[in-house]
Amino acid sequence: MQIFMVGGAVRDRLLGRPVNDHDWVVVGATPEQMVARGYLPVGRDFPVFLHPETREEYALARTERKSGRGYRGFAVQASPDVTLEEDLARRDLTINAIAVSADPESDGGHFDPYGGARDLRERVLRHVTDAFREDPVRILRVARFAARFTDFTVAPETLQLMREMVAHGEADHLVAERVWQELARGLMEDQPSRMFAVLRDCGALAVLLPEVDRLWGVPQHADHHPEVDTGVHLMLVLDMAARLQAPLAVRFACLTHDLGKGTTPAELLPRHLGHEQRSAKLLKGLCERLRVPTDCRELADVVAREHGNIHRSGDLGAAALVRLIERCDGIRKPGRFDAILLACECDARGRLGLEGSPYPQRARLRAALAAAQSVATSVIAAHAAAAGVTGQKVGEMVHAARVQAVADWLAQAPAAAG
């Protein structure tokens, strides 16, 4: 029985990056032997155990054989006869197929049968064996690693293999949960645009996110978008979101805020009248298909519908500002409102030559929200009750008071408000 550290922990250690999780593989053991040593079995599809003290996962060495479509179509064999080299052969990339012994008496050298250390030095994402084609999730993983390791390139033969997988329909069988899981992780990487560049290059983006894929080649008005191409703009917005360390919901909103531009009638181009409503409609279908979490879905919906109004909010008076805040549910959910404003700032600064530009709309709307929140609604409700006013009339009184509060703020601080 031998234990090896494998996968991302070894890779990141060699790259000098922080190691947060450890993956362990056990060679030459049976499930019964693992249980006898105090390991807790937790694997449903193959033998995985929790260490009795560290609670880290230890998996028995195994091989996988394709038995059906999609990432679930595998027959797994785990036995004491499976070698470490055979176990590493089933992994996705060479940089993830390096092992080091956990035996303190070992020389500490790396077992690297597929050249992973070389590819780390040369900054290459390369598949281990042709078995890569058996799991379509690996297409997404390669794209995600491209977004994380921003100075790595995808090996030409690996990219060609990914194209063949897409052409053969493997990407069509990815389940929604896995697509969202990898997409969400990729959005949170250092340069998320690289994930979409790889997916687009191999043809997977058109299969998984056709609403996003169709944005490339769609022109925009050069007065507002120096980059002109909508797809190029979208990638700049995503990378700006990463630069500003935006949370996942904001990054997803950035990804989907302009979907409607892909369906603008040709005779309207390069203008995109009404694209906000079209974006919201397309977003709904995308979210249902990928089962996007509610917080991401709701934030993206508001950003899709209102980002144009937020960009133009510097010209709005008190009444229009309050209506905008209320449409965004800002008074009830101020934290989410701030996230909406951050997504809009990413959109405004995600343009060629405008990356360092200020976005005063964000501070202005924050201040307008604070003014509207200063209204004592309980006092208004009490006065209304004393006067026998109920229902919608009370809401109208609260709204009018908020408009007045914002108007007073505008009058008192015109320079700050502008």
Count of distinct strands: 11
Please identify which CATH superfamily of the domain at 2-122 we are dealing with.
Beta Polymerase, domain 2
Question: What count of helical segments does DSSP give?
Answer: 20
> Portion of residues in helices?
40-55%
Strand content: 5-15%
Output the keywords.
20 helices; alpha+beta; elongated; two-stranded antiparallel ribbon; Beta Polymerase, domain 2; 418 residues; 11 strands; 7-stranded mixed sheet
Describe the protein's architecture and organization.
Helix 11 runs antiparallel to helix 12 and helix 11 (230-243) crosses helix 16 (334-349). With 418 residues, the protein is an alpha+beta fold. The chain is built from 20 helices and eleven strands. The protein is elongated, with a radius of gyration of 27 Å. The strands form three sheets. Strands 3-4-5-2-1-8-9 form a seven-stranded mixed sheet. Strands 6-7 form a two-stranded antiparallel ribbon. The protein has a two-stranded parallel sheet with strand order 10-11. The N and C termini lie far apart (70 Å).
Please outline what is shown here.
This protein is α+β, with helices and mostly antiparallel strands. It has helices at about 10-15, 30-35, 85-90, 115-120, 135-150, 155-165, 175-185, 195-200, 205-210, 210-215, 230-245, 250-255, 275-290, 295-310, 320-325, 335-350, 360-375, 375-385, 390-410, 415; strands at about 1-5, 25, 40, 50, 55-60, 60-65, 75-80, 100, 110, 125, 155.
